[in-house]
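Q: My labmate handed me this sequence with no annotations at all. I'd like to see what the chain might look like in three dimensions before we decide whether it's worth expressing. Could you predict it?
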Amino acid sequence: MEFLSKNKTVILVVLGVLVAIGIWLSSRGDTHSDSLIKTQASSGTGPEDKTLVDTLLQLRSVSLSGTIFSDPAFISLRDFGTQIIPEPIGRPNPFAPVSLTSVPAKVKPQNVKPLSPRR
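A: Here is what I predict for the chain of 119 residues:
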């Protein structure tokens, strides 16, 4: 028991280093493994290509006409959107410091000179 109490910090440091090495080794993983990423050259005769061609042929046969717009169900639809009310235009740069010469973009008084940029 005396050994543990005298060497407690040394034992904790050694255990901490061992745990850190174990975590580092397990998180590093296998860097040379290509098992998750593989590519195949497509020859154009696989089952994926056949389903793609079938889907494209089905889409080619679809024709769009305007008959849906004369349907009573479409005509009975109502717009429940909110009207956007135009608001007055604010300052040209809303993040610029507010000063006495700052005026809205639409209203420009005759006596105010534009600010020169600070250097």
